[in-house]
Amino acid sequence: MKNIYKIAILASITALVTACASSQVSTISEIKDENSTVSIQSAEFADAIEFDDILIDDEYYKKYPDNTLANDFFTSYQNSTFDSFKATPKEEVTAQGFFDFLNKKAILDIYEPYATTNSVKLVGRVYKKRSISAENVKDSKFKNIIRTLKYFIPDPISDVNVNVNVNGVTKQAKTDKKGYFTLDIPNINVKQGVNKIKANLITTKYKFDDLTQDFVSDKPDTDSVSIISDVDDTVKYTGVNHKIQMIKNVLTGNSKTDKPYAGVSELYKSVLNGPKSSGVECMHYVSGSPSQLYRRIHDFFEYQKFPEGSIDLKINDTKLEAKSSDTFEYKVARIRNIMKTYPNKKFFLFGDTTQKDTEVYVEISKEFPDRVLGIYINNVNNVNLSDPRFKDVKITNTASDAAKDLFSKGYISQESLDKVISKAQ
Question: How many helices (H) and strands (E) does the chain have?
Answer without folding.
Answer: 13, 16
